[in-house]
């Protein structure tokens, strides 16, 4: 019997983007630590994105200060759970996967005009969001992710 006949959906990896101020927690920290709890997110829309994450999903790590850019890739390593410091918030564990060399700047993303309707371009303050499939496909052409 095929998986769909059993009511099982095939595994679909989703991609997200998580912003961090590199002075607070950078890709260097994640690479050194190998794994971290992604916390501190308070915006309701960003919390929804965290609650949608599942183990195996990928997360573009974005530095929001200096030159805003996607600097690396992480993998979701846990189910989302309530933040132990505030049960109204959610956290997830992320594991380092790779750096992007060179980083992909927000300027380059904006100049492409391919993603003008994406939250990264429209809502600059949103810290965590889903990455659209078209963006993931575009990134796969640029990087071996």
Kindly describe this structure.
26% of the residues lie in helices and 34% in strands. The protein is an alpha+beta fold. It has a single domain (12-132), classed as ph1033 like fold. Strands 1, 2, 3, 4, 5, 6 and 7 form a seven-stranded mixed sheet that branches. The chain is globular and about 40 Å long. It starts with 14 loop residues before the first strand and ends with a helix. 28% of the residues are buried.
Short description:
The protein has about 140 residues and is α+β, with helices and mostly antiparallel strands. The protein is about 25% helix and about 35% strand.
Keywords for this entry:
single chain, 145 residues, alpha+beta, ph1033 like fold, seven-stranded mixed β-sheet, globular, disordered N terminus
The assigned CATH architecture is Roll
Helix/strand order:
EHEHEEEEHHEH
Mean pLDDT: 91
Q: In DSSP terms, counting alpha (H) and pi (I) runs of 4 or more, how many helices?
A: 5
Low-confidence stretches: 1-6
Query: What is the CATH topology classification name?
Result: ph1033 like fold
- Taken together, the total number of domains comes to 1
Write down the CATH class: Alpha Beta
Largest sheet: 7 strands, mixed
N-end to C-end Cα span: 33 Å
Radius of gyration: 15 Å
How much of the sequence lies in strands comes to 25-35%
- DSSP strand count: 7
CATH superfamily: ph1033 like domains
- Approximate shape: globular
- Structural class computed from helices and strand pairing: alpha+beta
The percent of residues in helical segments reads 25-40%
């Amino acid at each position: 019997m095929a998986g769909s006949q059993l009511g099982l959906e095939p595994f679909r990896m989703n991609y997200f983007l998580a912003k961090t101020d590199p002075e607070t927690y950078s890709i260097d920290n994640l690479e050194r630590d190998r794994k971290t709890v992604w916390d501190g997110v308070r915006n309701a829309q960003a919390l929804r994105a965290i609650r949608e994450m599942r183990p195996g999903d990928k997360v573009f790590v974005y530095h929001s200060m200096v030159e805003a850019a996607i600097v690396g890739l992480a993998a979701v390593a846990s189910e989302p759970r309530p933040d132990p410091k505030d049960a109204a918030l959610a956290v997830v564990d992320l594991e380092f996967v790779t750096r992007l060399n060179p980083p992909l700047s927000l300027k380059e993303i904006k100049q492409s005009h391919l993603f003008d309707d994406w939250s990264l371009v429209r809502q600059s303050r949103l810290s965590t969001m889903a990455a659209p499939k078209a963006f993931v496909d575009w990134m796969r052409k640029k990087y071996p992710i």
